[in-house]
Amino acid sequence: MKKVLVACGGAVATSTVAANKIKELLKANNIDASVEQCRVSELSSKVGNVDLIVTTAKVDKDYNVPVIHGIAYISGVGAEKTNNEILEVLK
Predict the structure, then answer these.
(1) What per-residue confidence (pLDDT) applies to 23?
(2) Active site residue 38
(3) How far apart are CA 59 and CA 69, in angstroms?
């Protein structure tokens, strides 16, 4: 099973929207993965066995894990591109 971390500033509003969109995407593409939300400030402690980080906030640190900027799920602009990037990492 793949593991995805969805991070935002407060781990409530934008990460919930993004996490729900990612769950729908994964289900539609038959990808077995867990999706967990957290704050950007928690990434260092949660990045252990993670396959992908999707963040709606700016992240400059290298976690040795692919990081995809997921603001498209909030703005609606570029969501298909973001979906394709996520699928590319997890397939």
Answers:
(1) 98
(2) no
(3) 9
